[in-house]
Amino acid sequence: MTIPDPRPETRRFEVGHSASIGASKSAEPVFDIDDLSVTYGDFRAVEGITLDIQPSEITAFIGPSGCGKTTVLRCFNRMNDLIESASVEGSIRYHGVNLYGPRIDPVEVRRRMGMVFQKPNPFPKSIYDNIAFGPRVAGHKGNLDDLVEESLTRAALWDEVSGKLAEPALALSGGQQQRLCIARAIATSPDVVLMDEPCSALDPIATLKIEELMLELKKDYTIVIVTHNMQQAARVSDRTAFFTVDVRAEGVRTGRLVEFDDTGVIFTNPREQSTEDYITGRFG
Amino acid sequence: MQHPHDETRHRYSESLDATLRSTVELGALVLENVRRTTEALLENRLDLAHQVIEADDEIDEKYAALEHRVFEVMARQQPVAGDLRFLVAMTRILYEIERSGDLAVNCAKGLIRREGYSLSANVQSLLARMSRKAADLFSRGLDALADLDAEAGARLDEADDAVDDLVGELYSAIAQRSGDMGFDLAVELSRVGRYMERIADHAVNIAEHVTFIVTGSFPEEPAATKDEG
Ligand SMILES: Nc1ncnc2c1ncn2[C@@H]1O[C@H](COP(=O)(O)OP(=O)(O)O)[C@@H](O)[C@H]1O
Ligand SMILES: [Mg+2]
Question: Which CATH architecture group holds B4-215?
Answer without folding.
Answer: Up-down Bundle (1.20)
